[in-house]
Amino acid sequence: MKKVSVSEQGLVEKAKRHAAAVGVAMKESVTPLTATVFYPRERKKMPDNFRGYLLFDPEKCINCWECAFICPANAIQMKKAPAPNNRFYPTVDYGKCIFCHFCIDSCSGGALRTTKIHDVAYREMGEMLTLTEEMIEPPEIIREDKKSVEYEIKKDDLHLKRTREVDGLFVEPTPPVEIPMVSQCVDRASCLGCRVCEEVCESGAISSSSAEGVLEAEGVLRMKIDIEKCTGCGLCVKECSMQILRLVRRGK
Amino acid sequence: MAAVAAETTTGQSEWEVAVPEKPLKEKVYFENLKAQVIDTELCSRCLTCAAVCPALPEGITLTADDKVGFPDYEEKCLDCGACVRVCPRFEYEPKSGLGEYTDFIAGQSKRFKGQDGAMVTELIVSAIEMGLIDRGLFVGRDNRWATNIFHVRDPEQLAITTLGGTKYTFASVLPELKRAVLLTKSGVGVVGTPCIVSGVRKLQQEFPIFREKVKLVVGLFCTENFHHTEISDYLQKKGVDFSKLVKTDITMGKFIATMTNKTVKFKVKALEKILPSGCNVCTDFTAVEADASVGSVGSAAGFSTVAVRNENARRVVEFIKKRGYADFGEGKPEELAFLVGHKKKRAENIPGFQDQEDK
After folding, report:
1. Nearest of A163, A187, A192 to residue A245 by alpha carbon
2. Which of A142, A169, A196 is the last residue of a domain?
3. Shared domain check, B159 and B66
4. Nearest Cβ partner for A220 among B6, B11, B16
5. Residues A241, A196 contacting (CB under 8 angstroms)
6. Segment B268-283 mean pLDDT
7. Residues B63, B140 within the same domain
8. Domain, as residue range, for A131
9. Is the pLDDT of residue B9 over 90?
10. Which residue of chain A has the CA closest to B212?
């Protein structure tokens, strides 16, 4: 059997090592090296694209339902807004939400936006269903934090960097990318000539030769979409009963 | 952020629509249709007009007494003329006879059970299996024998037993056909009486979208059809219990309602009082404009007669033969002579028809 023994060290070496140990102990007692954030007295600084609590702006909502369609957790349901505005707006069930924020990515009007709020508490399960009205204003926040904390790597060690300033929880929403579109007729022979498109067009881009007497004289109805005036809103596309109007990319 | 996949195919920004002529210059098109077709009792209730009417959600629809109407046309009619363009009876050219056909055969499906040989079901389902179409429109019924339309996309759906069999009641096939045409990817198959077939052909003649998407039109041999309320009232008076009714049929001039416990028989002539005015002026027994016409007359019991009229239908029949889905026999066109003649005589009922003959 072989006995393991402490390697023989000189007296000087021993004293040096003891002194170093005492030094570390002294340092730790003054400024301890720890990765713990003392929440709620301090908060970790979150990046601007942090996926947190959702806020909603009904003014920007175009009622496309895309957020509800895309939600993989089925957390978003559309609810009819109280009269007089009969539109449908999203509600979020935070009992289901997985914070993937596909809803925000899909929102073409930029009505949904993220916040850095990640710490919301509810008394019961039912409260987790957040109605549209509750999503417009941020929830009641009691902030006890005085510092914000960031992690940084120094000499292969994880260090906490504390700053006295308090981190803001709200981020300006990124404006949605607009693709310029224009309405076009893709099957002119199937046109009924009902002029519903002309009727619904808000920008006056669609016109027809339906003036008094013109139709009878010519025996033919001329339809025209003024590409310059068309805003690409798609109302005519939606209303065309033969589905022969399409939105196409402008300038091609 | 949200990058919407946009179509890059460019369309037209200027186009022209030919406007049909109005007999009544000062009136909207629906009033023209009403004066020319509905008020003259020529209307066949095929609902081709309702299928294209863009005045949604009101538009041309059925009134309470199962006639074609437009409750608020003075206000709501968009005056586009689509109804007049597609109405098969606006400038009525009555068709009659056996029509053109390449094959006249009798068939009995081995897979399905129907009125006779279930060849209508077989043709549509085989066309789906061939990939010619991706949906077929079938007429089903509820427990009061009122009709409703089903989109059949898979043969398994035919487990609904009400899809086969003759109903002798009008169905709103064409409005549903338009929905099917807008939904389909490869094509639609449709089954209908001669008036519905004529409506489909008119739609195809006017609008390319129907020309491209309606790929199989199966016509039914038809002497007449009935409004649901009238036929159901009559049958109830005759002692027919709808909850037990399993099959209705007309053979040898007799209407036979088969129930689970008994059968009720009476002469078809007795139904003349409730014969719809549109059928009274219809001369087409065999649906001469269909791709294939199917009926019970002209073949042995348990078989359906199939008149194959064009290439599309011929390919479907070839497919059925190749797969052995049905037994085939000889069709006897001469057996149809009586009923073809019977309907041809109805030309006398068309207002102004005699004048045309004289000219």
Report:
1. A187
2. A142
3. no
4. B16
5. yes
6. 88
7. no
8. 45-142
9. no
10. A190
